[in-house]
Design goal:
The protein has 448 residues and is mainly alpha-helical. The protein folds into 2 domains: 1-179 and 401-448, no CATH class; 182-248 and 250-379. The protein has helices at 3-45, 48-82, 84-90, 95-117, 125-130, 132-154, 171-175, 180-208, 214-248, 250-257, 288-294, 317-344, 352-378, 391-394, 401-428, 432-443; strands spanning 160-162, 165-167, 268-275, 278-285, 383-385, 389-390. The strands form 3 sheets. The chain has a two-stranded antiparallel ribbon with strand order 1-2. It is globular and about 70 Å long. It starts with a helix and ends in a 5-residue tail after the last helix.
């Protein structure tokens, strides 16, 4: 296998692993917060349905955590095996957040075990709720630290290269790079948003399938409200991300927006196709790119004409940007309409059609998440470490990457199918109605 083939298969395997892992990582970050909110609402309202909601989510969360550990370990292994030159350089600089990410995960796992083991062991449920705080904090900071590594790849700093050797290494300066604030905020908030819409889709699906229990209605109402809050936050942070790109990675912004020539009064191009370098069938929003980049409708936005051809990211990232933005704004509208409909008691938000839209919102949010990650990673090309190391210079020269790709693809198929089967059986064999009845008998109270 030549170097070009090794680079190609290394990129495909890394993309496959990250695309699969990001689903479990996102759920791993978002579900602890959702569990904590549900249990807090249950305690505040003295409502057993919300308490049970937290309990059932926690059971399913354990399964996704287990798979997430496997895929996360695969990523760590692949970084060393597939990108040895990158790790040799970056490992000396950015090892601290990698260590802290592991620490955050163990911190989360320890308290998650205690939380699960101590159900019904506290007379005061508020004390049990306190155990969720380190779980949620650990899960979120695990995402924070690993995203800092990705941010460093986009804005490397905290070291100097003198005669081919690293000097003046500052791990803290490397961690707190210019890309860190917007990347970390965007990753964490979209994890909360995506998880909320996934859980809302499950609740809406159960209602559509005939389980008209108030438990599912409360789950849908709670998750859609949380989804609305974090989808709006995602839009706001996305705006800041655009301004970061205009300042620090203008080539990525220009490629994503098909902005070929530097100039002011720049329009935002949505959709369309490229035909021999000419944009056709696109929707142009006047001045919008200048506003996105600099909050000034007449501001100059750097175009692709300012960069060497071999440093221009692939132009198909424009489609990824369109997909991400379209789904994101649709989810804001869906959640906003649901909240307003509930507030004004519009009956159509409880209709089958609207609930099917909510069901579709779950997988749509995952697609938007994937599109956002592909945009972030492909948009950095041809660099693995922007401005310092190219992808082809970082990759292995091993002749067996294609075999690794097949083996890991098989593993992910097994893990994906296994997750669905286990979760389906877990909840099918223990429906809400039965569990509520069992708890009613145990407590001798009325929970209807």
């Amino acid at each position: 296998m030549g170097n070009e083939e090794a680079v190609f298969f290394s990129r495909v395997l890394t993309e496959l692993t990250l695309s699969f892992h990001i689903i479990y990582a996102t759920i791993g970050v978002g579900v602890p917060l959702m569990i904590m909110i549900a249990q807090w609402v249950g305690i505040k309202k003295n409502d057993e349905h919300y308490i049970l909601l937290a309990r059932r989510w926690a059971r399913g969360f354990v399964i996704t955590v287990a798979v997430g550990v496997v895929t996360g370990t695969a990523i760590g292994m692949q970084l060393s095996l597939l990108w040895p030159n990158f790790m040799e350089l970056a490992g000396n600089i950015i090892a601290l957040p990698l260590f802290l990410e592991t620490f955050a995960f163990f911190f989360e796992a320890i308290f998650l075990g205690i939380y699960l083991y101590t159900w019904d062991r506290f007379e005061n449920q508020k004390k049990h709720l306190l155990l969720l705080i380190p779980v949620a904090v650990g899960a979120s900071f695990s995402a924070v630290f690993i995203t800092i590594v990705n941010a460093f790849m986009n804005a490397p700093q905290g070291f100097d290269v003198v005669d081919g050797s690293l000097v003046n290494i500052s791990p803290l300066l490397a961690m707190f790079n210019p890309a860190m604030p917007t990347k970390v905020a965007h990753v964490v908030v979209t994890a909360y948003m995506t998880t909320a819409f996934i859980l809302a889709a499950i609740a809406a699906f159960r209602l559509l399938k005939g389980s008209n229990h108030v438990y599912h209605k409360k789950a849908l109402y709670l998750t859609m409200k949380v989804g609305l809050v974090f989808s709006i936050a995602t839009v706001i942070i996305g705006d800041f991300s655009g301004k970061y790109l205009a300042e620090y990675q203008p080539e990525k912004l220009a490629a994503a927006e098909w902005h070929f020539e530097t100039g002011g009064n720049a329009p935002l191009i949505l959709y369309g196709v490229l035909d021999d370098g000419e944009v056709k069938y696109a929707i142009e929003i006047p001045f919008a790119l200048s506003i996105l980049a600099h909050f000034n409708p007449t501001a100059e936005v750097i175009g692709l004409d300012q960069f060497p051809e071999d440093e221009v990211p692939p132009l198909y990232i424009h489609y990824l940007f369109d997909l991400m933005v379209t789904i994101g704004m649709s989810l804001v509208g869906l959640a906003g309409l649901y909240w307003l409909g509930k507030l004004l008691k519009w009956s159509f938000v409880d209709s089958k059609l609207f609930r099917w839209l909510i069901v579709l919102g779950g997988p749509a949010s995952i697609i938007a998440l994937e599109a956002g990650w592909w945009l972030a990673e492909v948009g950095r090309q041809p660099w693995i470490l922007r401005g310092i190391m190219r992808v082809e210079d970082a990759a292995t020269t091993s002749a067996h990457v294609d075999t690794m790709l097949l083996l890991f693809a098989g593993l992910y198929v097994v893990l994906g199918i296994g997750t669905i089967v286990v979760l389906s059986r877990m909840f099918r064999k223990n429906p809400v109605e039965r569990e509520l009845e069992d708890r009613h008998i145990e407590r001798g109270g009325d929970i209807s």
